[in-house]
Amino acid sequence: MRKRLACWGIIIAFVPGMLATAAAQEPGFDAASVKQCKPDDDPGRLIFSGQHLLLTCMFLNQIISIAYGKTIAGQWSRFPSSAIEGEPAWIHDRYTIDARTDHDAGENAVKGPMLRALLEDRFRLRVRRETRQVAAFALTLDRHGSKLKPFDGTCTPWDTANPEKPTAEKPLCTVTRGGRGWIRNFDFRGITIATLVQQLNQNTGDLPVPVVDRTGIEGRFDVHLEYDGQQNAPPDGAVTAPQLPAALEEQLGLRLEKITAPWEFLVIENLERPTAN
Fold this sequence. Notes:
By secondary structure, the chain is of the alpha+beta class.
């Protein structure tokens, strides 16, 4: 049976920093605390900066997806949870990680190589990457043309490749996800199609296979998308929003076409419950 989240919160875009790589041997955190949450503990804040990472009562598989992500269209993109394999049953345990460094390592270094190093140390995590040919969807332009709304330029896009400092007149653009029941609502300001595809791939279960960008569309857009997150129509026939493929076509002028494409998987070779702080 497919597992789904009952409700969605708001994702806040944070001020970006510099990307660091493991090859550069970025220093680790100067202090880090890892604590398992109790079943009735509520999830809380997610804080990322060049010196501080705080993940409050977050599922371990989601933490791993952050740590093994990469930069897409100038933004840090999580590794899709649906492409993580070999995990033990307790990977859905929740943990609070509070880690700090005395120097400004850059936000992407904190999210990526430094968080990976912490997981490898405290959880004895070892992984390998595999690329396989899989069934997928190609996101293409509908024959009637795009319905995408061009970015109005009234906010500052979150772009780690070419960071622009937000101002009072142009605050940081937001990326929000919300909804009620099975109805999903996306509101993206100043995003690229690559970022839209990345967001679709992060919503595990809304589509049966991954999505790749074949639109050829450049630029930034303001996107509102509303759809029914169920892959099959409810038994009583009560539908209050179109399902995702129809919503993409009706609201954005984009189509999903079945293809076969290479897709990367993250295979967990070892994972242990964390060592004491």
